[in-house]
Each structure stands twice: as structure tokens, then as C-alpha cells.
Amino acid sequence: MQNFLKSLLQQRQQDNLYRIRQLHTSVQTPTLLINDQEYLSFCSNDYLGLASDLRLKKAWQEGAEKYGIGSGASHLITGHTSAHQSLEQELAAYTKRERALLFSTGYMANLGVITALLGRHDAVFLDKLNHASLIDAARLSQAKMYRYSDLKVLEQMLIKSSANHKLIITDGVFSMDGNIANLSTIVELAKTYNAWVMVDDAHGLGVIGKTGRGTVELYDYEVEEVPILMGTLGKAFGVFGAFVAGSELLIETLIQLARSYIYTTALPPALAETIRESLIIVTEENWRRQHLQELIDYFRNHASNLPLMESSTPIQPVILGDSATALKISKKLYERGIIVTAIRPPTVPIGTARLRVTLSALHNKKQIDRLIESLNFLLF
User: Fold this and answer.
1) Options 133, 175, 330, 374, the catalytic residue
2) Region 35-53: what's the mean pLDDT?
């Protein structure tokens, strides 16, 4: 086995696909401490800058005083506390849906939903840019899986399908490209061909829409148009965990059938209390989202000569093509005290390796200027 593992790792290195964890010793802010040296980071999904907020630290401490640390059991045994219940109710209100259900991670939420609702006589339709967890969940469900590259292709797939149930799944904001899904066309196709719609809005909630309630709010859709909404709590909300929001019947079905919910320990109740505090901050402090949008506009206006993808979100990919080039530029940036991760296949299609720049409400324009100046120096 050791020889086999060694050969796998050597191949990854030869293909410029080897991944290395970045070790830092600081709180999650745009400035990270690595080997006692400060680095400017453009890698975090902490879009609203809440991961280091002292109010969340206080909420965790108070929650731990009341509930202790671990939940001790799954939700269906003795792990479901009043903190979890209150958070679910508040998430339902935030997303304007009847109920919400907590999961430990977005990966587990997607696995739970898709495997609970679909079987071998059903069909699932996935955008080719969807998150890996959605692809894995579709495979586990045993439903027939279709992957579309554009919505005309999706329509043809829907026409040909004779499945009992059809589920169209899309990211709200695509995590590697930063663009927003064309929900209006997806919803119309779902109505025409009697399909359901699920949106994974991990990168949209808290950031996109008039009040930051995500892609569904941007399109002004309700539960009738998008019956299944998944959101994560470790990105814009700055904490950890995930949830699914929808109708009373949907959530009750997931409680009964979603294996990744039933057979796992509940989140620590202190963490649930921390998320509740984050939800209040996200709702009340609109300046965070507004400042973030100003930074996005500033970056795009001042980096227009860079090979950027079209994106109005905090995710701003700089396309470099091959993995070797992406790794080289990422390393050169690191040498200049700037961290931007090189994203390579299979995470993105071959020939589209990139630097994935992500912006936070805690960044400032001087920091963005420093990034742009370094990219210009290294690329031109």
C-alpha cells in the first residue's frame, strides 16, 4: 500500500496538482501571521469580516457557560437544545420560509437532502460548475445524473427524461467563478417540465440581494419557485455549520430520512448561540455588505487589465490557464507577503487554472492596491 500511495502523490506533484496546507497562528482577518511574519490574505470566505468579531467570541463564551461544550448526542437522541431550536426558527425567518434544519456542514446538508429525496427511478440535473458535494450527493442517491453546461442543454435533458421526479440543482454563486446562476430561466424550465429546484447558496447568503438574503432574494423568488435552499454558516456568517430551509413538509421529511442529519452528533449548542448572534449582526449591519460591494467595484475598476472573469461577487478569479503558471504566480505573491491560492484541476476545468481572489469587508483599498500592483508586476 505504501508504494501505491507514494506513486499517487508523485503523480500529483508531476501534474502540478499537489496541495499544501497553509499554517498560520492568528485570528482570521486579512492579515495572517505565518512564521512570525505578517501576510496579506485574499483567500478567505469570511466575506463580511465576522470570523474575528468579539461579539461572536462573547456569544460562544456565554453559550458554553450555559450549555457546556459538546452537544453529547445526535439531534434525535439528546443533542437538540433550545439553542438549536431557536437558531432554526431564526434561520427560517431570515430566509422567509416555514422551517429550517441545521446540519454540521454544507457537504452533509447536500448529501442529506439529495439522498433523502431521490432514488434510482428519479433524475438529478447539475450545472457542471456545481460544488463537489452536490455531485457526490447525486451519485449516492442512485438517481440518473445529468450535468449541463448551459441552459439550452438543460432543457433538452429535461425533455428527454422520463424520471418519476426531477430535481434541478445549482449553486447560487459559483464558488470558483464568482458568477451568479441564471435562476429565472432555471425556474421557468422547472415549471415547464415539472421539476423541483434546489439552490446551494453557500456563497450568496449574507452578501447577495437587496438585504443580503442571497440569490433567491436577488431574483425575488419564494419557496414556490425554489422549494429547497441550502446555506452555510462558515462564510459570510463567520462561524460554522449549515442549514436547509423550506416548507414544513420538506424539513420534517429530512428529519426522518436524511442520514447525514440522523446519524451524526449535533453542533455544540454554544456554537448555535454564536450563529444566532452572527445572524443579528448580518441583519442589522448593512454597512458590511455595502462596503464589501464598494471594494469589489474598486478592485474591478483598478484591475481591468488583468485576465478577470465576469463577477460582481467577492470571488474574483484571475485566469492564468495552466497549473504551473498559477502555482508560480501564487508562490511569487507569497514571496511578496501576499497569499492568493492557486486553484487547479480537477477543482476547475483543464486550461482554466487561476488565482482565486476573495474580498472581505475587512479589507481596505490600500491593501487592494498592493495586490493589484503585485499582480501587474508579476504578469506583465
Assistant:
1) 175
2) 96
